[in-house]
Amino acid sequence: MDDSQPKRDSEPIELSDIRKEIGLIDKQLLDLIAARCDLAVSTLDVKRRHGLIPTDTRRERGVIRRSAVLARERGLDTELVHGIFRGVIDLARAALKAAGDSEPRS
């Protein structure tokens, strides 16, 4: 065993508390992503009723641009945040596809 690595059972209580908070935030992030995907699917019926194309790439680009601005305001790496939002949009697209979006993109 490498002595430079602390044993998990002797982990400081503060570290354990911080890790619990991180775990809660991770769950919240996943809950929010799932809710966002559900909302994307909810738009599908509205778009169909109004004859709109289900996937709006122009809007997706706008979401990514806004995420970069918000990331910069918070001192976060804009490229990494861009990747996160690209992934969130990809998840929403997958949810749309599963819900029956088989129409071409705009």
Describe this structure in words.
The termini are far apart. The protein has a domain at 53-100. The protein is built from three helices and no strands. With 106 residues, it is mainly alpha-helical. Helix 1 packs across helix 3. Helix content is 71%, strand content 0%. The chain has helices at residues 13-49, 57-73, 78-98.
- Give the beta-strand count: 0
Low-confidence runs (pLDDT<50, min 5 residues)?
Answer: none
Pattern of helices and strands: HHH
Shape: elongated
User: How much strand content do the residues show?
Assistant: under 5%
Distance between the termini: 57 Å
Total helices: the number is 3
Describe the structure concisely.
The chain has 106 residues and is an all-alpha fold. It is 71% helix and 0% strand.
